[in-house]
Amino acid sequence: MTEPTKETEVWSVAEWLYYYREQFFLLSEQKRFLFFYRTQQIETPAFQQIRARYPELAVLSAYLAYFLKGEEHNG
């Protein structure tokens, strides 16, 4: 399975979870947070469903992405 891009097909929730397990085989809150952070820019309907299942982590990862972008521009 290839990594998704905006030009490729939309993945199902099962495919996203498979990708998640392949990338982060130790399931923990920290690993799940890193997964959300790394994939924050991907906007697909299936990923929206996964974000809805873990709203706190989605908000935290969005905040971290915003914070790091600010650091890149300011520092």
Q: Runs with pLDDT <50, length 5+?
A: none
Q: How big a fraction of the residues is strand?
A: under 5%
Strand/helix succession: HHHH
The best one-word shape is globular
DSSP strand tally: 0
Number of helices: 4
Coarse structural class: mainly alpha
**Fraction in helix:** 55-70%
Biggest pleated sheet: none
Radius of gyration: 13 Å
Mean pLDDT, to the nearest integer, reads 66
Distance between the termini: 37 Å
Task: Please describe what this structure looks like.
This protein is an all-alpha fold. It has a domain at 25-74. The protein has helices at residues 13-23, 29-38, 45-53, 55-74. The chain starts with 12 loop residues before the first helix and ends with a helix. The mean pLDDT is 66.
Provide a quick synopsis of the model.
By secondary structure, this protein is an all-alpha fold. The protein has four helices and no strands. Helix 2 (29-38) packs across helix 4.
How would you describe this structure in keywords?
single chain, 75 residues, mainly alpha
Topology:
Blueprint: H1 13-23, H2 29-38, H3 45-53, H4 55-74
